[in-house]
Structure formats: structure tokens, C-alpha cells
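Components:
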Amino acid sequence: MTDEHPTPNSPSSANPPPRVGIIMGSHSDWNTMQHAARVLTELQIPHEERVVSAHRTPDLLFRYAERAEERGLEVIIAGAGGAAHLPGMCASKTVLPVLGVPIESAVLRGVDSLLSIVQMPSGVPVGTLAIGTAGAVNAALLAASILAVNTPAIREALRTFRKVQTQKVLDHPNPRQP
Ligand code: RP5
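Structure:
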């Protein structure tokens, strides 16, 4: 039996088609992956979020990855935990850049997820980020950098993001006063 999935967002002028797809292996990953969505929203990059499990909904994963390019996606961010084969399997079915976010697992603190995602055999790359929230945030920023190659507005949004980040540190030099 194939894994059916609701039709993704229908684009409109108020709701432009997603350029980045954020997928994750479980609803339990959203606590981490929401940070990727938050950063993309801040940078005004249209994106979508979906739960797509490599082992619970394998047919859905294949269909999502195979159709991603024709649907207009340009980058996929995939978060998974434990035996985290989602990013690698996704990358095997598309030539779009796939950025992997290792979810911090309860038992091995995400080292299992990290090694599962980062140790791709040669030929099918996954750009692997840090474990947890930092990885989710940086995956979004890296996706933005990729899109910025052809979208100057995103490059400017990234420059602004960095400036704001720098200024926050400069404005609060005293570690006792966060
Ligand atoms: C992976 O298994 C998911 O990415 C998640 O991180 C982990 C645990 O999933 P749940 O048991 O919480 O659904 O597939």
C-alpha cells in the first residue's frame, strides 16, 4: 500500500509557492525543526513543513523527493533522529541540495542521529548540520545562502540577520546582564 499524503499548499499571491521543503521523521521532531521554519519566515523565504518518515511512510518519502523539483522546491531540509536515514534516502531520490539536521535523541543525545546523517557513502551528499536547535537554525541559514546565489533580496536579508546578531552582542557585553 502506498502512503497517501494531503496535497501540499496551493500557492497564491498571498501564499507564494514554497522554495524550501522542511521534512522530518516524526511530529516529535517539530520542537527542533520549528527553528528552521522560524528563521526562514524571518528571512521571508516561502517554505513548507511536512512529517515524512523514511521507515513509517517510505512511499510518501520517495514521492515527496521525486516530485520536489517539479513542485518548485530548491532546497530540502530534513530532520531525523536515531537511525536517521530520512535525509540520505531523500537525497538518493533528488538532485536538489539536501541539508540534514540530526535530532537530539533521548538515549544517545543525538550522536546516533549525527553519525547516521553525516556518514553518507560517496556519491549521494547530505550537507549535515549540528545536532538539535543550532543545526535547525543553521540549516535554514544555509538554505538561504544557497537561494541567495540567484535572489539578491535574500542575500540582503542574510546581511541584515548578521548585523542584528552582531549588534545584540555589542549591546550586551556584560555576561551578568543577559
Ligand atoms: C525518527 O525517529 C524521527 O525522526 C524521530 O526523531 C525518532 C523518534 O520518533 P517518534 O518515536 O517520536 O515518532 O524517525
